[in-house]
Every structure is written in structure tokens, then in C-alpha cells.
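Lab notebook, bench 4. The sequencing result for the construct came back, and we need a structural model before the next group meeting so we can plan mutations. Quick request posted to the team channel:

Model the 3D structure of this chain.
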Amino acid sequence: MNKFQEMAPQKYMKTTPIAEYVKQLISTVRRMNRDYPTKNFPLDGRLVGDIGEILAEQLYELELLAGNTPLHDALSQGRHVQIKTTMKSALGFGDIPDYYIGLKIDENGDVEEIFNGPGSIIWEAIKGRKRPKNYMINVSVNILKKLNSTVCPEERIPKRSAHLIAKKRPKTTGC
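Done. Here's the predicted structure in C-alpha cell form:
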């Protein structure tokens, strides 16, 4: 082996246990791209978000906007909707969207509605916070659930079929 061969980057993917998982992910993403051509499903930080947008389109009466738009992801009965999804304990909030749907996907693939209502409700609760460098304020799932309980039914984006969301929405206390 010469000096240049020693310095060349090694390819470990074929020999590591995760290689098979990566192949499955890539195969799955290809199928998702074929079945849902309005999204790219890149294997980076946007994957969960793109999956969440497709879930929202299936669960709610909304239509996804083409491509990646800066603030709103969908339209529902003339209302602009931002969709955020997490598999962790917080969702991001940037500029104030007209409507905001926050979803959480658990390790079993079940989907829980965390927030469904006007973005201004969230903004009023967090407007005193300093924005981080990436501009997105992390809002805990627990705070969003509490805020969600204050949203009146007519302020929500309607669901296509209520039985599809795994977890029950909290009872509305603010109307």
C-alpha cells in the first residue's frame, strides 16, 4: 500500500452493522418519493418534517403546497397552515403562521395531535422569549398541549377522520 492509498478515505458502510438499516431507509425513501412526489424525504433533519406533512394531509382537511415554502406548508379552506412534527419533546416555532398543526410521532409510529389552531395563540405564550441563532423557538410538547386545550373547535383545521389520530385530543376548556 502506498502513501496515497493510506490517506484515502475508507468506506465503512459495507462492513458496519448499520449498513443494512441505511439501505432499508434509502429504499423506503425511494418508495415514499414515488408515492408522494410533492415531498423529497431527504435523509437529514427534514425527514420527520416531510413525514409529518404527509400525515397531516392524510389526517386533516388540507392540501399541501408544492415544494418548500418559507412559512406555510398547506391550505385548508382558504386558511394557510404551518405543519411541524417531532419525535422528541418540543416543536419549533418561527414566524407567526396563520394556523399551526403540531404533531408528535412516537416510537411505535402512532401520531398525536399536540396543537391545532391559530399560530397567534402560541406566539402570545412565547413572545417574551429570546430567539436563538436559528430563529426557531423550541416550544415544549406539554406547553403546546395546554395551549391546544384553549382552542375553540371552529378555530381548528378539521380532521378527515377523527379515529385516525392515535391519541385523544384534550377536552377544550377555553370556549
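The CA atoms of residues 55 and 73 lie 12 Å apart.
Will bring this to the meeting.
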